[in-house]
Design brief:
five-stranded parallel beta sheet, 30 strands, 11 helices, alpha+beta, 625 residues, six-stranded antiparallel beta sheet
Length: 625
């Protein structure tokens, strides 16, 4: 009988141990499992503990492969902090001249890292050429250093990570190097960005910190090729000085691109100088706290409209058979030709290998306005399937699972709601009244349960396209952020913003964005329909929880087309909040100055408020101690 009881107790304990050791979804993203304290009492949860530092692979060490084909493996970066870039360089031998160093089918150089708590990161390596830059950021030719191969990665938690670096040639393993890396904690870096889990309306870092995208397009510079990155960084730094944290860049032959006409699409050698400039942009993002949406293709590259040569980029598209190394005869073939699909994956893999380490890469945008490609109506389903294929491929090679999106000229295009994409980047020009932007954001979020960013927004038919009073720029920033979007509406006119010194408008809206608890479980949208505002010329947008609210009120008749200013005072409205006392601060959105601070009391589930004097628009923050 005792034997039976013992066997039964052993069985119960083994079932408990198995259940306790199962990973939760939170464990996969590096966040703490709420039950970890309980299971640690029976030693069933691993921690990423440090191994002896003196035996780790550290700055100044040099490693060589077992077979000597991987040699001089060493650090480029000195610091080893969680979520920050770690870069290694190595010399590779045994690669014959007929092999394509960019194509993993020929040369596959990669690193696999495993933490002590069972996390795994597999990161491809990449071919690298070193370039010189002048003090003002101009690229100035190659250095005397020979090309080498690099590995860039971020380790997502502090502790020890075992690694194996592998060189395969034509699919056959030729050499390996192994060891371990010790990584220190890094509270300054919140991790990689992803869609907020509960509402799926905003974004958050992997540590749970909320994020709203405040910024504008800075797609490129039309200056000479040697100064493009320097010009873009100059504009971005001016945005960041006023609190902006987001931008969007384009990669194309006439701006920056690692695919150049005159060589085969999978031969990226001619693009190495541009790749070095993109390095500088990503590094600048990291220093200034900016996050970038990287657009990988644009419709212009697949436009074959002879009537509009300025928009006809197909003539210099690397895949075009009329260019050296190309082989497709029409834009439509890009989405269906097997070689084009394979070569595009070579390009995407290189982008991940070189830039995917960065927590400041907000997302990959597969296409800018894909519906602008010549012949799109006839191949719409093929284009959609291409997006699905490329999104799946990116996720297979990007261990950090950066978000993926695309864009079209029409907000109701089927591509925007494609389930394989993480969020919607909608383009909207000539939008009329501001409520049209609000409805666009809110409706698409409700339908598809994914965040919406107005990725391009503004007017193209008015003169000037961006008025010097910055009225539409200001209104787009606020309606994007407060009207259900994942951030401000992204203006296309970055050079005009710079010319008229409009960066100051980011300051107040970015401060508001920083205070809103985007990841709060009790977050709800607020608009005019549920606030009982007593003036039909006043619209209200914003967010509330059970005991907080952040609102924006605006004059629905005032715009860059109608600059008649109306003065408002004593506008009454209410908002649903828990009973109790609240701090109410009214803010001038044009200056950031406090207009009025009061203490108010909510009763019977509502807070009744009366506005101070204001015009154009005003914001209010309602908080408790």
């Amino acid at each position: 009988m005792k034997k039976i009881i013992c066997l039964f107790l052993c069985f119960v304990f083994s079932v408990f141990s198995f259940t306790a050791c199962k990973k939760s979804p939170a464990d996969d993203t590096g966040s703490q499992n709420s039950s970890s304290a309980a299971v640690s009492s029976v030693n069933s949860v691993k921690t990423n503990e440090l191994k002896p530092e003196q035996e780790s692979f550290k700055y100044g060490d040099v490693l060589n492969g077992k077979n000597g084909l991987i040699s001089n493996l060493s650090y480029v970066t000195e610091e080893r902090l969680a979520n920050n870039k770690i870069e290694l360089r190595a010399d590779l031998s045994g690669i014959s001249s007929g092999l394509n160093v960019f194509d993993e089918k020929d040369v596959d150089f990669s690193i696999t890292l495993n933490s002590q708590d069972s996390k795994t990161i597999v990161m491809p390596g990449f071919y690298y050429e070193e370039y010189k830059f002048t003090d003002d950021g101009r690229i100035n030719g190659k250095t005397a250093a020979k090309p080498d191969f690099r590995l860039r990665f971020a380790l997502t938690s502090a502790g020890s990570w075992d690694f194996v670096i592998t060189l395969k040639i034509k699919g056959e393993e030729k050499d390996t190097v192994s060891g371990y890396i010790n990584v220190a904690e890094n509270k300054a870096n919140h991790g990689f960005l992803q869609v907020e889990k509960r509402r799926k309306q905003a974004f958050q870092f992997s540590d749970g910190t909320g994020f709203a995208a405040v910024g504008e397009n800075i797609a490129g510079s039309y200056e000479s090729s040697s100064v493009r990155s320097a010009e873009m960084i100059k504009w971005m730094s001016r945005c960041a000085e006023y609190g902006a944290n987001f931008t969007r860049i384009w990669l194309s032959q006439w701006l920056l691109s690692i695919q150049k006409n005159g060589s085969a699409p999978s031969d990226l050698t001619a693009g190495m100088s541009d790749a070095a400039q993109i390095d500088r942009i990503v590094e600048a993002w990291e220093k200034m706290g900016m996050y970038g949406q990287v657009c990988l293709f644009t419709f212009n590259q697949l436009s074959n409209d002879k009537k509009n040569e300025g928009e006809n980029g197909f003539y210099c598209f690397p895949y075009n058979k009329e260019t050296k190394g190309g082989y497709i005869s029409s834009p439509a073939e890009f989405f269906t030709n097997e070689k084009a699909i394979s070569d595009t994956k070579v390009y995407l893999r290189y982008m991940v290998a070189r830039y995917g380490y960065s927590t400041n890469v907000f997302s990959w945008e597969l296409f800018n306005e894909a519906d602008g490609c010549t012949g799109y109506r006839d191949i719409q389903e093929e284009v959609r399937l291409w997006h699905v294929d490329m999104a799946n491929y990116l996720r297979s090679v990007d261990p950090y699972k950066h978000m993926i999106t695309t864009s079209t000229t029409k907000s109701d295009d089927v591509l925007n709601c494609e389930i394989s994409l993480d969020y919607m980047s909608l383009h909207k020009y000539e939008y009329g009244i501001l409520s049209n932007l609000t409805n666009l954001q809110k409706t698409n979020w409700q339908l598809y349960q994914k965040p919406v960013i107005l990725g391009e927004c503004g007017y193209v038919t008015t003169t000037p396209r961006l008025d010097e009073d910055l009225i539409n720029f200001h209104q787009q920033n606020w309606v994007g952020l407060m009207g259900g979007g994942g951030g401000t509406a992204q203006s296309w006119w970055w050079e005009t913003v710079d010319k008229i010194g409009g960066y100051w408008d980011f300051q107040v809206v970015s401060e508001m964005a920083q205070h809103i608890p985007w990841s709060a479980d009790d977050m709800f949208m607020v608009d005019t329909s549920n606030t009982a505002v007593d003036n039909e010329q006043v619209e209200i947008l914003g967010y509330r929880g059970n005991s907080f609210a952040y609102l924006w009120m605006y004059d629905n008749k005032y715009s860059h087309l109608n600059k008649v200013v109306t003065d408002f005072k004593d506008v009454k409205f209410h908002i649903r909040l828990n009973d109790g006392k609240y701090h109410v601060r009214w803010i001038d959105t044009w200056t950031g100055m406090s207009i009025l601070k009061t203490e108010e009391t909510a009763a019977d589930g509502y807070l009744e408020l009366t506005t101070p004097a204001w015009c154009k628009d005003v914001a209010v923050a309602i908080t408790v101690d």
